[in-house]
Design brief:
386 residues, 25% strand
């Protein structure tokens, strides 16, 4: 005998309970809709930024259509709670589906300029317009005044001109400032040393002139400072030696004068690479620098450094590169270097060194070019002393 059919009042009740349970278990569609909502003002600002730029080869802006700039616009990221644009990141050399559609990274070219409209994105945390090669004009001065939440500012590999905004120091949350490989001129703004959160500073390969700020040592969070290939002059600020987290410092290919600050490298084993080559430095090599346990790369070549090479190497010395060539160094080749855990590339050529090159590693595997053009060196690859 067949079971009785459910009463007419029971079926609607079961359906209602089932619908309620599904609504509780899957709130994602409503949340997704809220997260996709895009600020109309931010969308208008993005379209103004796009109007000032031209990129035809890769179609970077082809996805910038419709009203939902938070959903699918390439390089745009939004705060899911507010719908405000928080990230604008467009790299001319990237490894994603847009920049590398065939699985091979492309090299993009974009022309135009950075519109002041970027300053209307006042909740922006990341601004990256990198390696587009032909973006010109100045950095909008309003960036420093209108983007208080900015943490990352990367504009390298373009043809930007003008000066770094004088009020750059007002970006109190900034951790990364990368303006390398442009045509930026003028002095480094004094306010830059107010960037208390700054960890990465890259101003390499520009036309910056004047002095390195004397109070650079105020940047206690700084781990990388790359100022290579500019027109900076004056001394290396002594305050640099007090930076507690500085791992990489590159001041090479400038017009710096004076001595290397005493105490540089003395802060434990933090400093890993130091490039000071192709300047006009004088004075002596601080012993603390060569005694530094973490230092792996040291290039002091093409200066006017004098005196003896401090004989302070230890079994904890691990030097991938030690280039002291083309200076005025005198005295003998340091014997303690033989105790180093590792010495890769060594260049002591074009100095005024004298005496016998020590026997054993690392000297026994180096060629004559490492010691060429000194006053009276002999032994090792240079041949017997007479």
């Amino acid at each position: 005998m067949a079971p009785p059919a459910p009463g007419p009042a029971i079926a609607p009740a079961l359906l209602a309970l089932l619908a309620a349970a599904l609504a509780v278990q899957d709130p994602a569609p409503a949340a997704a809709a809220a997260a996709a909502a895009c600020s109309e003002a931010d969308r208008d600002a993005l379209l103004s930024i796009r109007a000032a730029l031209s990129e035809e080869r890769l179609g970077v802006f082809s996805s910038w259509k419709g009203t939902e700039c938070c959903a699918g616009w390439y390089g745009v990221g939004c705060d899911p709670d507010t719908g405000r644009v928080a990230d604008l990141s467009l790299r001319g050399e990237a490894d994603d589906a847009v920049m590398a559609p065939a699985g091979r990274p492309a090299s993009g070219v974009m022309s135009g300029y950075i519109s002041d409209a970027v300053c209307r994105l006042d909740r922006l945390s990341t601004l990256v317009l990198a390696d587009w090669k032909q973006i010109t004009g100045p950095i909008p001065s309003c960036v420093a005044a209108s983007l208080p939440y900015l943490r990352v500012l990367e504009l390298p590999g373009n043809r930007l001109t003008g000066e770094i905004p004088q009020s750059i120091g007002s970006l109190s949350r900034l951790t990364v400032l990368n303006l390398a490989d442009n045509l930026i001129s003028g002095a480094i703004p004094s306010s830059l040393t107010s960037l208390a959160s700054l960890k990465h500073l890259d101003l390499a390969n520009n036309q910056l002139a004047g002095r390195v700020p004397s109070d650079l040592g105020k940047l206690n969070m700084l781990s990388r400072a790359l100022l290579v290939r500019n027109r900076l002059s004056g001394p290396i600020p002594p305050s640099v030696a007090s930076l507690p987290r500085l791992a990489d410092l590159d001041l090479s290919e400038n017009q710096l004068t004076g001595a290397i600050p005493d105490g540089l490298g003395a802060a434990g084993d933090v400093l890993a690479s130091l490039y000071l080559g192709a300047n006009r430095l004088s004075g002596r090599i601080p012993a603390s620098l060569l005694r530094s346990r973490g230092l792996g790369i040291l290039n002091l070549s093409r200066n006017a450094i004098e005196g003896a090479i401090p004989d302070v190497f230890t079994p904890r010395s691990y030097l991938m590169l030690l280039d002291l060539s083309r200076n005025r160094l005198a005295g003998s080749v340091p014997r303690s270097l033989a105790s180093a855990a590792y010495v890769g590339h060594l260049d002591l050529s074009h100095n005024r060194l004298c005496g016998t090159i020590p026997a054993g590693p690392p000297y026994d595997r180096l060629d004559a070019a490492s010691f060429a053009s000194n006053s009276c060196l002999c032994g090792g690859p240079l041949g017997k002393c007479t």
